[in-house]
Design brief:
- The complex is a heterodimer of chains A (415) and B (225).
- Chain A folds into three domains: 35 residues, no CATH class; 161 residues, no CATH class; 139 residues, no CATH class.
- Chain A is 63% helix and 0% strand.
- In chain A, α3 packs parallel to α6, α14 packs parallel to α17 and α16 crosses α18.
- Chain B has 225 residues and is mainly alpha-helical.
- In chain B, α3 packs antiparallel against α8 and α8 crosses α9.
- The mean pLDDT of chain B is 85.
- The chains are: A mainly alpha (415), B mainly alpha (225).
- At the A-B interface, α8, α17 and α18 of A face α8 and α9 of B.
């Protein structure tokens, strides 16, 4: 450690002073140094600032820790879904082509797939996605930081991992890179970078990919990843639970539980975007973030109430023969799809959600309402979480405005 | 087939058909409103009415005022124009007055603009009377609603999509609500990012247009209905 510190101190001279050789790259150096060591500067002891060690970096690290269960599950589930599909298709050992990591660590024995094989396959899919997401996003952030002579902020460390968890594991990397570039530049940096964006950057990536490359982001054939070069599983048709419920005619819950048990859905043993399938891991993350005080529990509670309440409401309002997801039990809406993940990790984003307490309740409730509305009455989209959160992101400042205006009015009346 | 069935069953069949038709018109109205608000938002999908949208979206309060005025004018003028179109302008529409082979559809733009201008005049007088503050805040943009392309555009869409009277009422109302939501959310966002560190060349209209594009993406929630 001392050796590393010395090395960094030595290099610092080349960057820090305004006339140093590489001073232009100081933001990069600063980002790297504060990534390795705790920064030595603190808020000065003057003025009225709250002084606390919970800075942006600490908050972001907490969120990343909260996402680790989901990330681990995404690695496991990518492999489990893959080998499940291989077993269903009855692929012969000789026909199975190895991916890059399987080539290094040894391929699976298809007759007897071990847990290790699942993990190796999952890593093989998830590592490139993570590297692509972080590489492109952080590259752009650093570029902007250097040009603007600002510090590189830690905000993207969370977005980068979120992005990897909300796309299908079979996503082509060039598409992912395009989406990340779009979102980081047009959704975030043009507004002034971390803390200034209107829309959640990770959700923006997904929405961009969803509308631009619909064939790779939706439908039944993208949720099980394969080894691209060999095409053995890519295109294996396996609808998500929500897409299956969409075509149900009378009792979607019963139809679903014939394929997957509720325990499977809770634990995450179902096809879906990489990291959102496991409700257990999401709840672990949610609990951790609430205990650490970095995410708003109001938004989460309001969202769950909004979702289940609106699902009941829809069952009452829509005609009995309407079919589709409205025939699902209201509480099953929580178990399928990415609602919990989106609500816990993205709707609670402190930047793009309302800042007032009442506003948070309204915002969370409306996210639940819109999610159910899209799920039940929009024939084109099986899932509505993404668009509901984006829509409410657009209205978060409006909600804040009216809550503040109402407060002002009430207080004026009081005096 | 109906000839064979007993009279009671025939009645039941007719009744059933009527309830189905009733349900479907209701569903049809809901889908028209949702489409007009979200999918075919007059601002975010067709970029009509951008001038007043960009000019009045600096403050939330005045944008609410303008949005409400647009809702009112649209909900009024689209059905009025529907009546004009169906009973005066369409080929043969004047049959009720004894001119079965008349075709006045070349007067469409003129008459639509005239009816819109009348409605706007009424709104203007009402706003001036009941909220002089809002009247001052809206300034020139209230009379300019008369030539706002969103208003005329909605009437023309109504003709093009051959809506009936009920449909044109809900369509006009939905279009207005879409305009209101878009302009209010834009105003709140602009108020929020007024302190943001936006790159100098993009300040003002540039960032507003980018934000408009992003909001348009968020409004695609119901595409497919």
């Amino acid at each position: 450690m001392r050796f590393l510190r010395n090395l960094v101190e030595k290099q610092k001279k080349l960057y820090h002073a305004p006339d140093a050789k590489f001073h232009k790259l100081w933001p990069l150096f600063d980002a790297f140094e504060t990534f390795l060591f705790a920064p030595d500067h603190r808020t000065k002891r003057s003025g009225v600032h709250v002084r606390d060690y919970v800075d942006l970096k600490r908050v972001m690290n907490t969120v990343i820790l909260a996402m680790v269960p989901c990330l681990l599950w995404s690695i496991w589930n990518a492999g489990a879904q893959h080998f499940g599909a291989i077993a269903t298709m009855g692929v012969a050992q000789a026909d199975y082509g190895l991916g890059w990591l399987q080539g290094i660590l040894g391929g699976p024995d298809l007759a007897n797939v071990s847990a290790m094989d699942n993990i190796v396959f999952g890593l093989q899919k998830m590592l490139p996605i993570l590297i692509c997401s972080y590489g492109v996003g952080l590259g752009i952030e650093m570029f902007f930081a250097v040009i603007r002579k600002e510090e590189v902020s830690e905000g993207y460390l969370v977005s980068g991992m979120l992005i990897a968890l909300i796309v299908p594991a079979s996503i082509p990397l060039w598409q992912l890179a395009t989406g990340v570039a779009f979102s980081v530049i047009l959704g975030k940096e043009v507004f002034g970078g971390t803390g200034m964006n209107i829309f959640n950057p990770a959700m923006m990536v997904r929405a961009f990919l969803f509308f631009a490359f619909a064939a790779q982001m939706s439908g039944d054939a993208v949720w099980v990843a394969g080894n691209n070069d060999w095409g053995l599983v890519d295109g294996y048709s396996s609808p998500t639970a929500l897409a299956a419920a969409k075509v149900a005619t009378e009792n979607a819950s019963q139809m679903l539980t014939e394929t997957w048990s509720r325990w499977d859905m809770f634990i995450g043993n179902i096809p879906g975007s990489a990291g959102e399938t496991s409700k257990l891991c999401v709840l672990l993350g949610a609990g951790f973030m609430i205990v650490m005080g970095v995410a708003s529990w109001q938004v989460m509670v309001a969202g769950v109430v909004g979702l289940v309440g609106s699902a009941f409401l829809m069952q009452g309002v829509l005609p009995a023969d309407y079919g589709g997801q409205v025939t699902m039990q209201a509480t099953d809406h929580l178990l399928v799809g990415g609602f919990l993940f989106g609500l816990v990790f993205m709707a609670t984003d402190p930047v793009s959600s309302p800042e007032t307490a009442l506003g948070k309740w309204i915002y969370g409730f409306l996210i639940g309402l819109f999610t159910v509305t899209v799920r039940t009455i929009n024939p084109a989209y099986p899932e509505g979480t993404m668009l509901a959160i984006l829509l409410l992101n657009a209205f978060a400042p409006t909600i804040d405005h009216f809550v503040v205006a109402a407060n002002i009015k009430r207080r004026l009346k009081r005096s | 087939m109906i000839a064979d069935t007993p009279i009671l069953e025939t009645l039941a069949l007719i009744q059933e058909a009527e309830t189905v038709a009733e349900q479907s018109t209701f569903a049809n109205y809901v889908s028209i409103v949702l489409r007009a608000i979200f999918v075919e938002n007059i601002l975010l999908a067709f970029f009509l009415g951008m001038c007043s949208y960009l000019a009045v979206s600096k403050r939330v309060d005045s944008s609410v005022g303008l949005g409400l005025a647009v809702v009112f004018v649209l909900a009024l003028t689209v059905p009025i124009n529907w009546a004009i179109q169906s009973y005066v302008l369409n080929p043969g529409a004047l049959a009720w007055a004894g001119f079965p082979d008349s075709d006045l559809s070349y007067l469409q733009f003129l008459t639509f603009i005239a009816s819109i201008a009348t409605a706007v005049q009424i709104v203007e007088m009402a706003v001036d009377k009941f909220s002089p503050k809002l009247y001052a805040a809206l300034g020139i943009f209230l009379p300019l609603i008369a030539v706002n392309c969103a208003i005329l555009g909605s009437s023309l869409f109504m003709v093009e999509r051959t809506y009936d009277f009920g449909q044109s009422v809900v369509f006009g109302f939905g279009s207005g609500i879409g305009f209101l939501l878009a302009i209010v959310s834009m105003a709140a966002i602009r108020w929020k990012i007024r302190t943001a560190h936006v790159p100098a060349p993009l300040r003002g209209l540039g960032i507003t247009f980018i934000t408009t594009g992003l909001i348009a993406m968020a409004f695609m929630t119901f595409s497919g209905i």
